[in-house]
Design goal:
Helices cover 80% and strands 0% of the residues. It has 301 residues and is an all-alpha fold.
């Protein structure tokens, strides 16, 4: 457990580096946006592909398929749950809170946390677990804000770099493709940038927030509680009830314990939501996750 706590503290300290860099003007909003694009389109896909560089194993494949099915059930239930529990709030708050209930920050924080604790094998399973997430993001996620579906968004979901990298990785794994040493080394080295880069981006983003306004309003606290505490605890106890252990339990709980998805603001802005309120929720859940993530990890032992 000391190792896990140490890893989480390291991630937090890297966030602090990003925060200070933004405050000192070393990173501006344009640089932050470019770094985010680099992470989502290059370093994260490289890290995912490198994580599939294993010799084919039936046991690993079966475990991955079961995690995919568990993820599908979890995200479907969260989609239904989110549509019900926020009815008391106004429409702008309702849409954002519904969205963050379904979609956690699995890309910027989930993958780095899993990778820092379990290494490449954990990342392998997390990538398979997140396939339903990526598909639902551009289908159900768009519907939450706009109230309508779009065939183009389904294409975006399938052609998303995160999904494409999983498909490429699966081909490498299923057929035990031996990549040339320079290629795998490049994938690993570029992919290893993902964790520090993601934490720096989050720290930099938090530096732009108006701290006082973030902590105002009951709805953001209620949504943060659901996102950071209620969901991972429910997932933990239900999976435990079914006797699931190890990766079957830990990967779903860790991914669902992450703060609100980083692109909640982008989705709200593009599809008719309230980007200001979305920013508020993303910032607050990210700040609070510095405390809640270690607490959930301690529960997992």
């Amino acid at each position: 457990m000391n190792t896990i706590v140490t890893q989480v503290i390291v991630l937090f300290l890297i966030m602090v580096v990003g925060y200070i860099s933004r405050k000192r003007g070393l990173i501006n909003p344009e640089v932050n946006k470019s770094l985010s694009e680099l992470l989502l389109n290059v370093t994260l896909p490289f890290m995912i592909i490198a994580s599939f560089n294993f010799k084919f194993s039936t046991d690993m494949l079966n475990l991955g398929i079961k995690l995919f099915l568990i993820s599908t059930v979890i995200h479907t239930v969260l989609l239904l749950l989110g549509s019900i529990i926020y009815k008391r709030f106004n429409e702008d708050e309702y849409k954002v809170l519904w969205f963050i209930t379904v979609f956690s920050n699995c890309g910027f924080m989930g993958y780095p946390v899993v990778e820092s604790i379990y290494g490449k094998i954990g990342l392998f399973y997390a990538a398979l677990f997140n396939i339903p997430f990526n598909i639902l993001m551009w289908t159900a996620g768009v519907f939450i804000f706009s109230g309508r579906g779009d065939k183009q968004n389904l294409r975006k979901a399938i052609l998303n770099p995160g999904i494409l990298s999983v498909f490429i990785g699966l081909i490498i794994f299923l057929f035990s493709v031996e990549l040339p040493a320079p290629v795998i080394k490049t994938l690993e080295m570029v992919g290893s940038m993902t964790t520090p880069l993601s934490m720096i981006i989050i720290g930099s983003t938090l530096a732009d927030a108006k701290i006082k306004s973030i902590f105002e309003g009951f709805s953001v606290y209620f949504g943060s509680f659901i996102r950071l505490i209620a969901i991972p605890l429910i997932v933990y106890f239900i999976l435990n009830l079914f006797g699931l252990k190890d990766f079957y339990l830990n990967i779903p709980v860790i991914i669902t314990a992450m703060p609100a998805a980083a692109n909640t603001v982008i989705m709200a802005e593009k599809y008719g939501g309230n980007p200001e309120y979305a920013s508020k929720v993303v910032f607050l859940t990210t700040i609070l996750s510095v405390v809640t993530i270690p607490a959930i990890l301690i529960l997992l032992k």
